Sequence to fold (83 residues):
Amino acid sequence: MTEPRLWGLPVAVTNTMTRGKFMCLDAARTGYIADREDPVIRIAEQHADFFVRNLLVTLCEERVAMVIEQGGAMVYGNLSNAG
Fold:
């Protein structure tokens, strides 16, 4: 499968965008992803009867933030008004 492109630019296909809307951004100028917390893995057996049933719970998480430095590098709108 080839990468989808529109006017020579890569297109990211997603189900999270509302139908009839668009977003275009210059990723190199918009901002960056910052680590708020290192990845953490926690293992526990203290939930309900997990100790008796010999079960473990695993929680894995990493906290990140998207920092927007130049909001003008992102454009969002309606496709019907895109001209």
